[in-house]
Amino acid sequence: MDKTTTEVTYEKVKIIVANTEFEVPSNLTIMKAFEYLGWRLDRGVGCRGGFCGACSTIYRLKGDHKLYTGLACATKVEDGMIVAQIPISPANKKLYDIESLKAVPNTMLEFYPEIARCISCNTCTKACPMDIEVMDYVQAALRGDIALAATLSFDCIMCGLCATRCPAEITQFNVGVLARRLYGRYIQPEYKQMTKRVKEIEKGKYDAELEKLMKTDKKGLAKLYAERVREKA
Amino acid sequence: MSMVKLTKTEKRIAFRQKVLDLAGANIMRCYQCGECSGGCPESAVMDLLPNQVIHKIQLGDESVLDTNTFWICSSCLICSARCPKGIDIAKVMESLREISLRAKKSYVTLEALTKEELEELPQIALISSFKKQTS
Amino acid sequence: MTEKIAYYPGCTAKSYAKYMDLTAREVMKKFDIELVELTRWTCCGTFFGLAEDNLTSQLAPMRNMIRTREDGFTDLTTTCSMCYNTLKRANILIQNDEEKASRLNAFMYEEEDYEGDVRVWHLLELLLEKVDIAGIAKKIVNPLKGLKVAPYYGCTLLRPKEVTIDKNPEKPTILSDLIFALGAEAVETPYMTECCGSYLTVKDKHLVADRTNRIIGSAARREADLLVVSCPLCQFNLDRRQKEARELNSALPEIPVVYFTQLMALALGVDVKELGFHEHYVDPTPVLRKRKLLGTPMKVPVKVKK
Predict the structure, then answer these.
(1) Which pLDDT tens digit goes with each residue over C233-283?
(2) Which of A180, A190, C216, C262 could form a disulfide with A150 if both were Cys (CB 3.0 to 4.6 A apart)?
């Protein structure tokens, strides 16, 4: 008997997908359960690490009136779970040339006037799998606090669950993108050391060194990598 | 006022009741004094005067939903403050707006607003207009 | 000791009406009251929802009450009369309708329950309660002598009667009292309690221009130098829409429209550069200069007994 592996059997749970009941092991995520059932996923799947926002899912639990939202790759199955994936969220997305915009309060309203329809119901915040205070950043955008809207929306992975739940039909995640772009381009303080370094690079300060590296063979590169001087934390 | 046919159909009663439920105001008390229309700063541009709207609702006449009266009403509450019968007319106007908005009828379209308008209008104007006039 | 009170600026106070916000803070400092902005706040909803069964419009104002309690305050003040009206009416609803309050609390299960234990004040109401007219007059260092000011109340400071800040909403005097206290002369007009056209400015700006023509025209006939308001939407409609109003009536004179907090700040000796007059469509500076009110104000405000 092979003693190096121990077999653990997980209790099976029933999940309901497209009105059909399936039995899957209870330790799986929704995404892994789908693959366990032999389904090949080519939509609504991405990084599998809770970071790309491709696998937005809505579900209900047994004996619970609430409609839950989550990422299929980061949510465990539960017995009696009714699941539906939202492969994409149809979004109101505006095109703009960031260089021609101004970081003034009404810029947010010019592109996304629907933020003025927000009724502060907080449904978006409740829907967010990243625990972002979505309503707070929409409200910040509404009153023209671009810096706050950019900061609060920073962790957004654009899964779109907020937008599918919003009674005011706002595409929150694109509002966040505009706020962060305006913040990055016009509001965020300039990092002088970075500007200095970019100038040095443009002047060719590192050209010789790069040239040398290009000519080094794989073994030499490995040696250089192993002996590199680390920056102190 | 034009001639109206006084028929008591279920549809008329249901419409009247719906307005009453939403407005929480007993419009049946109205005795057509016209105080509301006299005080209303916008009555001159309304298709029907506020007191005429109340009369039509008493009769269960759904055609009030086709007038601009309740869209022009800006909830300034002059009518409600002055009604000698204590009818909250602004709430009646709100209920007509709500009935329309719930039937997906909007008075304002976001997409029709120009860049210049959106650059100029303050939040307080947009929020309140969208709240009262978009479904 | 400086008294602290929770302060709700309102959305527009952070952009279009920022000088209403900034001067409100300056004015209150002169009376030893600090306006502490809520750490988190959202739109008030702008209008109190009037439909009996539509509770969603009560979520926004109620949430700000919850934020007030979170910040440890029991009193909340705001300068914008529309915010005041919506917050106050929603609060009254929560205090008086247990069934609706419990449904709202249940919907907002992620928040602490709110029972209606915040008192909502309009800034002017608060000033009159804490300082009173005589107290305001005492602090004036730059009396607005010779200035004729038309008070404009609009709707939301006065109606409905449950929230009015003047005991006589059909013939209010509270703004006139303030104008006299600042050393100016109040010029009341028949339109001072009528609507400016409010949000119709979005879709039907010609209607608003017509109202602006009437309101500004009636103030002009009474030789008012400027209008004083407490609402950013009234300010926008009466100031910016003078452009469209002049298309209806080319003879309409230009009359500036200022917030009561700007006027108070001027009389209390706040540097005129901080009053934001440059942001107005009709610049109040020329008429103030004509009345010789833009000279160097006495920069020594009366010391307050601590």
Answers:
(1) 999 999 999 999 999 999 999 999 999 999 999 999 999 999 999 999 999
(2) A180
Six token digits for residue A20: 């059909």
| Neighbors of chain A with 3 or more C-beta pairs under 8 Å | B, C
Q: Which domain holds residue C116?
A: 3-124
Residues C164, C270, single domain; the answer is: yes
> Is the CB of residue C155 less than 8 Å away from at least one CB of chain B?
yes
N- to C-terminal Cα separation, chain A: 49
In this structure, are A17 and A52 located in the same domain?
yes
Instruction: Please tell me which residue of chain C has the smallest CA distance to A66.
Output: C107
Mark yes or no for CB contact C51/B131 under 8 Å. no
**Residue C35, φ and ψ in degrees, nearest 5:** -85, 115
Looking at chain B, which residue has its C-alpha nearest residue A109? B118
Indicate the residue type of A14: K
Q: Which residue of A has its CA nearest to B127?
A: A116
Q: Which residue, C197, C279, C278, C277, is CA-closest to C241?
A: C197
Q: What is the CATH number of the domain that holds A21?
A: 3.10.20.740
Asked if the model's pLDDT at residue C295 lies above 90, the reply is no
Dmax (CA) of chain B? 51
| CB environment C41-79: b (16+ within 10 A), e (fewer) | bbbbbbbbbbbbeebbbbbbbbbbbbbbbeeebeebbbb
Do C38 and C81 lie in a common domain?
Answer: yes
The range of the structural domain enclosing residue B78 comes to 10-97
Q: Do A56 and A146 fall into the same domain? A: no
State whether residue B45 sits within 8 Å of chain C by CB.
yes
What is the distance in angstroms between the CA of the first residue and the CA of the last residue of chain C? 6
Q: Select the residue of B23, B72, B127 nearest C52 (Cβ to Cβ).
A: B23
CB crowding C189-210: b at 16 or more within 10 Å, else e: bebbbbbbbbbbbbbbbebbbb
- pTM comes to 0.92
